[in-house]
Structures are given as structure tokens and as C-alpha cells.
Design brief:
alpha/beta; 12 helices; single chain; Rossmann fold; 7-stranded mixed sheet; 24% strand; 358 residues; binds zinc ion; Quinone Oxidoreductase, Chain A, domain 1
């Protein structure tokens, strides 16, 4: 089969690769689309400890079931079903896995990291993943293209599940990439009356963010975010902050602008060799602030994400601004890095040229 194989930093090659064989407890998917995630970008430019080259990355996958292993219950899936696949695969045995929190398993082996991912013509869903119900059948009304947003949106849903956003609240999001803007749309849908999105790459934020109604876009190079939040909340501060970026200062600034009983999600991780911050614990103490983490997602978040895409709460067409062919994947990575596209999707079974321009 044809695959985009990651051989090392800034080295992805389109080449022939052995097509996986579908064992009795596995499921083979013919990949239709795989979106490029910020993590794919990091792997391409910096490498990743869980990705051992040569490897096939990509985890925002949709496709059609090609073959169902003979020991897999045929009532669950049939050849021809349109599906996506949950990224996190747990060990299946530990306490966290038993609660269904596969994303938090200490031995989690994710698809597109440990297991080969979606930038190839076929994807083998490993036995463990099949057993953990990682295969999600896409709703009829969700296209295979738009279905690539189920994975990133599921992570957003998991993150916000801790935050309890209520009617009339003010939410501030640091980071205006696709995930930050998904957070913004979801926060509005949850009832937030003011949603502010902050990003120093203000050009990109304005170009893509202005397509979403009712967001307040801030350029931190031009305005003081703290003052702006105070002005918009009559001095009270933000109820919720989400850091959808790998930036320490956003976490620190975020804590400072919270109102009493405010909640903050450290949604974006920090670089692994630079993850210590010094924060004012008394801010948390006196204001009764809550600090939450969020990492990846699980099946139930995928199911909700698919529904939010079908209902249009998350307007897929405003997020996917460009589709690349598999041959153009490196170009896609470059364009994301340059901020020229919001969400880029790779069409796996296409031959040439992008089919959707911004
Ligand atoms: Zn992702
Ligand atoms: Zn486990």
C-alpha cells in the first residue's frame, strides 16, 4: 500500500509499505481522510518519544471498514461501515482502564504513535482497541471529511467536561488554532455570554476567527488581556480560562485573570523538558480557583463530538480550510506551521492536488 512514512525529523516520504494483514480479532479500515494535528506537526519537526521511525503517524482518521476479523462480533460492524477510531488504547487491565479511562492508562499505546496511524491507505485496528470499542461508526449525516474533526473535538469535550460552563459566564481561551476555536464554539454552545480568544499570531486568529460569530479576538501584543477582561466583566474577571497552547505564560496569566470560583484548564501540555511553572498558590486559595488538566479523550467524548458536528454546533466547514493529497502532506505540515491554514486534512485515496481551497 501507499503510505507517508515518518523516517525522522523533517523527513516524511511517500512510499510503498506492507499492507497490514487482518487477524481474527482485528479490523482493517480503508482510510479515507486523516487530518493533521498539532501533535503531528510536533512529531515532524521535533520527533516524539513514543514514535519510533520508520513509522506511520496520524490519528484523526476516517475510513470505511474493509475487513472484520472472524472472531469480532459481526453485529458490531460490517464491511462498508464509515468509521473513526479512538486514539488512546489502554492496557485494558489497570484500575484506570477498568473505569474506561484508557487515555490515562500508564501503559497507553496510542494509534498514530505506538500503532501505525492514518497517513496510509489502510489502518489496522489492533485487537486491544477493538476490545475497548475504539471503533466508532460515524452517523449517516456526517461526511468522512468532516468526521476527521471528531477526534480533536472529542479532546475539547473531555477538557470542558471539568469546567462546567454556565449561562452568562465569561470564558477566555489562550490559543487561536483549530482547537482553541473549537473550545470557543463549544463554550458559546454551553451558554457563555462572552468568549475571548487570545493569540499573538493575530493575523491567523483574525483570518479564521472572524468567521465564527460573536467571538472577541484579542491581540496580546496590542492590548493588555488582564485589563480587557476586567473591562468586559466590570472588574470581576473571567469565570473560565482554557490554555489551548503549549505556553507557560498563558497558564500564569490565565490564573491571574480568573474571578472568584473561577476554573482553568491546562488543556495544552508544555514542552516535556520545560514543564515547571511557579504559580501564586494564594490566588487559588483566596479565590477558590480550580485547576484542571485534560489529555486526549475516550469513546463517549467521540460520540458526543460526532453529534455536535451533525447538529452544526461545531461548523466543520469553517474549520477545514484545505484538503491535501497524501503526496502533499509535507506541504500541508509547512502550511500549518506558517498559519496559512486552520485545519488541514489529508485525503488518502486521492491522486493529486487539493480539492478545497480556503
Ligand atoms: Zn489530534
Ligand atoms: Zn491500563
Amino acid at each position: 500500500m501507499k503510505a507517508a512514512v515518518f523516517h525522522g525529523v523533517e523527513d516524511i516520504r511517500i512510499q510503498e509499505w506492507p499492507q497490514p494483514h487482518c487477524g481474527p480479532k482485528e479490523v482493517l479500515v480503508k482510510v479515507s481522510y486523516c487530518a493533521i494535528c498539532g501533535t503531528d506537526l510536533r512529531i515532524f519537526y521535533h520527533g516524539h518519544k513514543k514514535v519510533n521511525p520508520p513509522a506511520i503517524i496520524g490519528h484523526e482518521i476516517t475510513g470505511v471498514i474493509e475487513k472484520v476479523g472472524e472472531s469480532v462480533s459481526q453485529s458490531d460492524f460490517r464491511a462498508g461501515d464509515p468509521v473513526t477510531v479512538v486514539t488512546s488504547v489502554g492496557c485494558g487491565h489497570c484500575r484506570l482502564c477498568q473505569r474506561g479511562w484508557y487515555n490515562l492508562c500508564p501503559d497507553t499505546r496510542a494509534i498514530g504513535y505506538f500503532w501505525p496511524g492514518g497517513f496510509a491507505e489502510y489502518l489496522l485496528v489492533p485487537e486491544e482497541a477493538v476490545a475497548q470499542q475504539a471503533i466508532i461508526r460515524l452517523p449517516e449525516k456526517l461526511s468522512l471529511l468532516d468526521g476527521t474533526l471528531v477526534e480533536p473535538l472529542s479532546c475539547v469535550i473531555n477538557g470542558q467536561s471539568y469546567l462546567n460552563i454556565r449561562d452568562g459566564e465569561t470564558v477566555v481561551i489562550f490559543g487561536g488554532g483549530p482547537v482553541g476555536l473549537m473550545h470557543a464554539c463549544l463554550a458559546k454552545a454551553e451558554g457563555a455570554s462572552q468568549v475571548l480568544v487570545v493569540d499573538p499570531d493575530f493575523e491567523r486568529l483574525e483570518r479564521f476567527g472572524k468567521k465564527f460569530e460573536g467571538l472577541i479576538l484579542l491581540d496580546p501584543k496590542k492590548v493588555k488581556v488582564k485589563e480587557e477582561v476586567a473591562r468586559l466583566t466590570a472588574g470581576a474577571g473571567a469565570d473560565v480560562v482554557i490554555t489551548a497552547c503549549p505556553v507557560k505564560q498563558a497558564q500564569l496569566d490565565g490564573l491571574e485573570i480568573l474571578a472568584g470560583r473561577g476554573r482553568i484548564s491546562f488543556f495544552g501540555g508544555l514542552p516535556k523538558d520545560d514543564s515547571l511553572i511557579t504559580l501564586d498558590a494564594n490566588l487559588i486559595h483566596y479565590r477558590e480557583l480550580s485547576v484542571f488538566g485534560a489529555f486526549a479523550s475516550n469513546r463517549k467524548d467521540y460520540l458526543k463530538a460526532a453529534q455536535l458536528l451533525v447538529s452544526g454546533v461545531i461548523p466543520a466547514e469553517k474549520f477545514i480550510t484545505r484538503v491535501f493529497s497524501l503526496e502533499e502532506i509535507v506541504e500541508g505540515l509547512h502550511q500549518i506551521k506558517q498559519g496559512a491554514v486552520l485545519k488541514a486534512v489529508v485525503k488518502i485515496d486521492s491522486v493529486k492536488k487539493g480539492i478545497k481551497e480556503e
